[in-house]
């Protein structure tokens, strides 16, 4: 009996406990549903629905001629909400859609695609990524007409999620100058320096959180459309940039150098037409554009003999010398306090004129003159450095410009030997851009302009900002001094350390530079070689500087290493720029029957047809495509004969203008050396010869 009562009591207690718990649960449900319902509904909505950022389309970057250097291309990820389509639309189109998806992506069968979409529809899945491969705009347009998809987002459930990627049509051309921007909004070049204009203003749109943590866009009246970025119009010339990079790379490889850079600038405007920077890769093989040595801190170095131009300018401005004065260089050595200055030539140059001293780049002559006339008052010499602005940053448009370094008289590290060594380009640091700005001023008859690489910021036809040429100094020296400096710089190429690049075709002016590198506090037998100058010297249009660091082998001097690169770049620019060339005489040849035709030999068929049609000249081409051709005069017409260049053999470039010949041959991997001007008369490697990479082919023009 006691046992029975005990069992009954326990059952009653358990029942009451269960009843109390059930009552508490029921109360909580009622409380959540009716008392706190709005609160939790709002929280659910805030978790599952959010206004999220919609990125603006980044602006384009253009070269001076309108060529695209960087743009954002739209790519799309194809997603579907399988539940949206009505049953009749779904049944009528699913087989065809599955077949088209399978044919396009080629990753699974049509039945597999159909089953995947059907399963998602049956389970109520609202967001299904059909394939993670991104498609282009043209393919997106085609897909939008496929079954089910053609009903759009609201009728078919298709979603083309836009993903933008930065694209460079010219690949790595000017890659460091065009630059990049990473996810943390840090980068280099134009992309980084002008990011505030390029990035635009992001918008916002309502998104719904769905299974798997993905977010699906939902149309909402409060969506804010993004404001796309501005376009940047640079001063760069893609042809000159290509020439500069190719010439620099060849010499770096020939000399196994550490790095090199080239800047080409338009004299009158200061427009940068090319900046090339190439550095040996970390693995020791090949070169890449990893740092902007032309402008940045790592490009700051002792300039060497290119600085002698300023030393001579200071002496001329003070009225201390004339170019015909004699200076005694002795045996090529001269002692300043506890250090000995040396000339490159063993035994020295003896007694020579100041003009000869500059042309031969005599260290002893220049340092003796500067010490003699400024040694008692070095601040006077430094005043000329400050006058031309070489001691300050230029305020260049790209971030990261290196700040020049000069010792100052009276400071801790100014010694009695500082001025003589500074006069020949030591104990100071300049970027190549600073040195070029000085030489450009001499070419510009004394007017110093600020280098610029961006000329306008615009969107559509609306120009937001236009950059004009800025004059830094109206004149860095008197007209008399500028004329003397121009004469000296031409003399270097005619008679001095750069006479190996002299050409009778046009006049070049410039100065070589060779500086020993300071490593761990000691000067070594590694050199920083350079050449700065301009052309044509009688009417300067372009100035340029070439720097090559630590070249290997004999004759590792500026005249032997950097000057030839300058010459190659100048030659190709001169050949391409019609304004620099004298007009070709109106040579003609006679066709059968006495008809007179223009001087046409060979070229690209579409270009030649355009010219002939413009002048009403009958011409015929039986081939197809935009091929290279040669002209064959016929009775009252010209017949274009195909001149194939696609085969792996040396093409026939006879009759082509230099620019076209360079294009055809260099695309074959051949190195081109040429002489003369006009069209190709002869080529050293016969047409049809199998191509060998890095073979040198000589062209004779006439």
From TrEMBL:
Pfam families: PASTA, PBP_dimer, Transpeptidase. It comes from the Bacteria. PROSITE patterns: PASTA. SUPFAM superfamilies: beta-lactamase/transpeptidase-like (SSF56601), Penicillin binding protein dimerisation domain (SSF56519), Penicillin-binding protein 2x (pbp-2x), c-terminal domain (SSF54184). GO terms for molecular function: carboxypeptidase activity; penicillin binding. The chain crosses the membrane at residues 7-27. Keywords: Carboxypeptidase, Cell cycle, Cell division, Hydrolase, Membrane, Protease, Transmembrane, Transmembrane helix. GO terms for cellular component: plasma membrane. The keyword Protease applies. Gene3D superfamilies: 3.30.10.20, 3.30.450.330, DD-peptidase/beta-lactamase superfamily, Penicillin-binding protein 2a (Domain 2). It is found in: Membrane. One of its GO terms (biological process) is cell wall organization. Residues 645-702 form the PASTA domain. PANTHER family: PEPTIDOGLYCAN D,D-TRANSPEPTIDASE, PEPTIDOGLYCAN D,D-TRANSPEPTIDASE FTSI. This is Cell division protein FtsI (Penicillin-binding protein 3). It comes from Cecembia calidifontis.
């Amino acid at each position: 009996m006691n046992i029975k009562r005990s069992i009954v009591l326990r059952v009653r207690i358990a029942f009451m406990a269960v009843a109390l718990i059930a009552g508490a649960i029921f109360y909580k449900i009622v409380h959540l549903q009716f008392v706190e319902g709005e609160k939790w509904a709002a929280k659910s909505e805030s978790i599952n629905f959010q206004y999220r950022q919609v990125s603006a389309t980044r602006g384009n970057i253009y070269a001076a001629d309108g060529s695209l250097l960087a743009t954002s291309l739209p790519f799309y990820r194809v997603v579907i909400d399988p539940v949206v389509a009505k049953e009749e639309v779904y049944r009528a189109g699913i087989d065809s859609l599955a077949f088209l998806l399978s044919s396009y992506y080629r990753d699974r069968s049509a039945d597999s695609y159909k089953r995947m979409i059907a399963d998602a529809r049956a389970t109520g899945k609202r967001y299904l990524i059909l394939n993670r491969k991104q498609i282009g705009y043209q393919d997106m347009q085609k897909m939008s007409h496929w079954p089910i998809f053609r009903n759009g987002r609201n009728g078919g459930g298709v979603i083309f999620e836009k993903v933008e990627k930065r694209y460079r049509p010219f690949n790595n051309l000017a890659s460091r100058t065009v630059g990049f921007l990473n996810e943390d909004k840090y980068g280099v070049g134009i992309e980084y320096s002008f990011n505030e204009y390029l990035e635009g203003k992001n918008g916002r749109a309502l998104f719904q959180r769905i299974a798997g943590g993905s977010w699906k866009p939902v149309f909402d009246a409060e969506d804010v459309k993004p404001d796309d970025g501005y376009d940047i119009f640079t001063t760069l010339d893609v042809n000159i940039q290509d020439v500069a990079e190719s010439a620099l790379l060849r010499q770096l490889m020939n000399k196994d150098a550490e790095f090199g850079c080239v800047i080409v600038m338009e004299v009158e405007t200061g427009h940068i037409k090319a900046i090339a920077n190439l550095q040996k890769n970390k693995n020791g093989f090949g070169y890449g554009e990893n740092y902007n040595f032309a402008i940045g801190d790592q490009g700051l170095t002792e300039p060497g003999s290119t600085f002698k131009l300023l030393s001579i300018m200071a002496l001329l401005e003070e009225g201390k010398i004339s170019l015909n004065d004699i200076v005694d260089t002795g045996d090529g050595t001269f002692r300043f306090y506890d250090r000995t200055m040396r000339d490159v030539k063993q035994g020295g140059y003896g007694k020579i004129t100041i003009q000869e001293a500059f042309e031969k780049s005599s260290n002893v002559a220049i340092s003796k003159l500067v010490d003699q006339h400024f040694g008692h008052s070095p601040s006077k010499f430094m005043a000329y450095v400050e006058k031309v602005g070489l001691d300050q940053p230029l305020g260049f448009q790209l971030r990261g410009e290196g700040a020049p370094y000069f010792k100052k008289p009276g400071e801790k590290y100014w010694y009695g030997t500082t001025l003589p060594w500074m006069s020949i380009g030591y104990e100071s640091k300049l970027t190549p851009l600073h040195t070029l700005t000085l030489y450009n001023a001499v070419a510009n008859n004394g007017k110093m302009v600020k280098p610029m690489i961006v000329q306008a910021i615009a969107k559509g036809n609306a120009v937001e900002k236009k950059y004009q040429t800025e004059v830094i100094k109206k004149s860095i020296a008197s007209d008399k001094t500028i004329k003397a400096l121009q004469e000296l710089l031409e003399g270097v190429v005619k008679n001095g350390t750069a006479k190996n690049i002299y050409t009778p075709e046009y006049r070049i002016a410039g100065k070589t530079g060779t500086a020993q590198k300071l490593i761990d506090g000691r000067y070594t037998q590694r050199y920083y070689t350079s050449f700065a100058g301009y052309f044509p010297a009688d009417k300067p249009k372009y100035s340029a500087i070439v720097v090559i660091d630590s070249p290997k082998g004999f004759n590792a001097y500026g005249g032997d290493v950097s000057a030839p690169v300058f010459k190659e770049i100048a030659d190709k620019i001169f050949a391409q720029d019609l304004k620099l060339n004298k007009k070709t005489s109106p040579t003609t040849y006679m066709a059968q029957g006495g008809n007179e035709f223009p001087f046409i030999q060979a070229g690209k068929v579409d270009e030649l047809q355009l010219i002939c049609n413009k002048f009403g000249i009958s011409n015929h081409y039986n081939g197809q495509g935009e091929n290279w051709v040669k002209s064959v005069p016929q009775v009252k017409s010209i017949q274009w004969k195909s001149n194939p260049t696609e085969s792996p053999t040396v093409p026939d470039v006879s009759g082509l203008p230099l620019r076209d010949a360079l294009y055809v041959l260099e695309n074959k991997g051949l190195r081109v050396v040429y002489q003369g001007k006009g069209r190709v008369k002869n080529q050293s490697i016969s047409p049809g010869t199998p191509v060998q990479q890095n073979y040198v082919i000589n062209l004779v023009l006439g």
